[in-house]
């Protein structure tokens, strides 16, 4: 089994399509699984197309295409239910998503898309690796994590060098160099697609917890 974990898309659907194509070519002859690390919307121009693409792929092959929730999906969902929360979302890139959908408010997004976003889990554990959007609270067991930390944590997790019981695969914190950030206990795959950087996939096999290589789609 080859697993391809893909970092923060942020509406850059042409990079997403290109990267998935390269991963499929790379994995020919193997059983494949994709794990998306969240943040499909905001900042980039094509959030609607990105969500539609991922929704379609997951519905077609749910066991082979796992989509996690990111903090931007959480912001969007909160904005769809509360006007005050919508202002916070707009300050964090939500306006680009509204333009992509051609609507004025988050509550006006297609019901199918909103319902799909609500179903997204916050983690995926394959026994070797924990896939999550932002990271984990290093002071807690991976089975005792709060949703807020899974979606939002940064410094306490990023600076911690301990073994967490799983190799942690995450995004959330954009890397200005456009390259994945690999450590003994984790890898960050947010290489800044939402800021005109590349979109990155880490390739994993069924033996080693760490990635065996990286694949990128570059603007």
From TrEMBL:
EC number(s) in its UniProt entry? 3.1.-.-
* Residue ranges occupied by any Serine/threonine specific protein phosphatases domain in the UniProt entry: 68-73
Xref: Gene3D superfamilies: 3.60.21.10
Q: Molecular function (GO) terms listed?
A: hydrolase activity
InterPro entries, alphabetically? Ap4A_hydrolase, Calcineurin-like_PHP, Metallo-depent_PP-like, Ser/Thr-sp_prot-phosphatase
Fetch the Pfam families from UniProt.
Metallophos
Key words, A-Z: Hydrolase
Tell me the protein's name.
Metallophosphoesterase family protein
């Amino acid at each position: 089994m080859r697993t391809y974990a893909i970092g923060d898309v942020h509406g850059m659907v042409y990079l997403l399509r290109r990267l998935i194509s390269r991963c499929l070519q790379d994995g020919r002859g193997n059983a494949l699984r994709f794990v998306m690390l969240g943040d499909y919307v905001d900042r980039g121009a094509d959030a609607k197309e990105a969500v539609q693409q991922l929704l379609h792929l997951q519905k077609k092959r749910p066991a082979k295409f796992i989509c996690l929730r990111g903090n931007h999906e959480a912001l969007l969902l909160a904005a769809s239910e509360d006007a005050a929360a919508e202002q916070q979302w707009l300050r964090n890139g939500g306006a680009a998503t509204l333009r992509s959908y051609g609507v004025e408010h988050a509550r006006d997004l297609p019901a199918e898309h909103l319902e799909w976003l609500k179903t997204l889990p916050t983690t995926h554990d394959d026994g070797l690796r924990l896939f999550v959007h932002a990271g984990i609270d290093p002071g807690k067991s991976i089975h005792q994590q709060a949703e807020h930390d899974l979606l939002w944590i940064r410094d306490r997790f990023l600076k911690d060098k301990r073994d967490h019981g799983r190799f942690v695969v995450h995004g959330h914190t954009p890397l200005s160099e456009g390259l994945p950030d690999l450590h003994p206990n984790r890898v960050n795959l947010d290489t800044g697609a939402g800021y005109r950087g590349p979109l990155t996939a880490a390739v994993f096999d069924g033996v080693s917890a760490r990635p065996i290589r990286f694949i990128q789609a570059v603007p």
